[in-house]
Design goal:
The protein is α+β, with helices and mostly antiparallel strands. The chain has one domain: Double-stranded beta-helix (4-Layer Sandwich). The strands form 5 sheets. Strands 1, 2, 3, 7, 15 and 17 form a 6-stranded antiparallel sheet that branches. A hairpin with a 5-residue loop joins strand 11 and strand 12. Its cofactor is Fe(2+). Keywords: Antibiotic biosynthesis, Dioxygenase, Oxidoreductase. It comes from Floridaenema fluviatile BLCC-F154. This is TauD/TfdA family dioxygenase.
Length: 343
Amino acid sequence: MQITSFRKTTNLNCSSPDALIKILPEVVNQVEKKGFSVFSAWDTEADTVQKIARQFGKIMRHIRADESGITTVAQGKSWHQNSNSSQNSPIEKNEYQSYDADEVIAHTDGTFIDGMNIIDGQIVRVEPPYVVLFQCVAPAEQGGELILIDTQQVLSDMLVENAQLAKILLTPGCISFCRDDQIALDFPVFQQRFDGSLRVRINCDNKAFTPDWSYEAVKRLYEEYFKNPKYRVALKLESKDVLVIDNYRVLHGRAVYQVYNNNNIRHHRRIWVANEPPNLVKNLQEEVKMKRAFETYNSYRITSPLLEEVPFKIKGGIRLKAESEKLLPGILHDLNISGSKER
């Protein structure tokens, strides 16, 4: 993958846990403004990234995460050491891209997740994470830059330049995702939310499936927009850096990196944060009862206490420029989905 842009990390520094509260308003401001923020933390301990993540919402578990919700990314551990042995069905190693040094195609995390679970006596929607954090413990000796793509700018330009392509990508049913025993069917790439913003859900590897009518549109999205240098930023994280990403707006991927003498020193941690406030669901018979279908989502459940106040909420998602925003209602009206907003 060609590195089309390169920017050093931000000058935001957090030299101690006590300083964290002071810089977090600016971190939130940067994520809301450009979709991500990078700052240097006081150390590289796992407890540090967990503490930071909790400032933005409830930690969301992952099938490969430890009990605290942290997933180790490409540390050189064996596959079995880093897998969740409690998973009911076998995990296919070829479904995960972070265990080699090859390119990782830009994507949003958790595209395949769409279900429910019971937490603290409440039925809760289990969806892709709202925010994704990366912590750099040790960078690769060469390469391994994180590639970020801001789809707010992509969709803004597309609505003006190619409204027909945007219309297809806004249509429910244009893409589905499946990994292991998780499946999310018939989603739009860009989905309207309850507050008027949009969110993106996209991957273009073997987890993604499209019907014939949207196949070329999804391919064009990647080839004409996501590979365009205009929308790509490459970040080289250094040890102690923490990257906060709006997963409803920004895609992330990874450039190829070098491993010398079979010694993979690159070590990142990743942690997911769920939508805040949680999306609660009611049973029509007012029953809170575990269903077998809910068990599939145990590995991706949100941590409790569920209704605990979050210190720093991020107002995320895609929020269009005025010029392109005025084109959106007409397209949604044509699709007859103007009243079916996601929460």
